[in-house]
Amino acid sequence: MKKTFVGFVVGFILAGIVALVSASKIIETNRVSFCASCHEMKVFHETWANAAHGLNHRGVIRAKCSDCHLPHEGLLKYLVTKTKAGLSDYYAHMTNKKASLKEWLEELKNVKRPRVAYESGCRECHKELIGNGIPIKAILAHRAYLLKETDRTCVSCHNMVGHGDIVAVIKDKIKQEGGEL
Does the keyword Signal apply (predicted)? Predict the structure, then answer.
């Protein structure tokens, strides 16, 4: 009986330590500074900083990378997606994949925005699309969306919110570096 109790206490303490370390790593890797720490992400950090939800705008919601690029439909889905994306980014960093702007430009041509920006992320912050203080023009613009009469998503219409015209920025940077498209 005594061994079982000691085993339970030790197991409980170890589980607590693992939970605390895991939680601290989740918090640490949700910081914009963490996402921007790899050279591959420099252009994304710069364009985010200048976009509507970045650093340079007052009076709007400032979003972290994880606010848009991870689902907000439950903790399990969030953690699984975060782990997959993190491992994919780590692999790309370690193998030098997507190291050049040309590689990113090619990737962005093939990506569907809803695959990299989650609707649930938009709705987490923008819960009220109708109500007091919301302009009638905005309510009417979102009518079909709210009534589920359209397949359009937030980023279908608001595709410049997160990073501005990132494709144009990358093309300009390639030209500035003397590269060809």
Answer: no
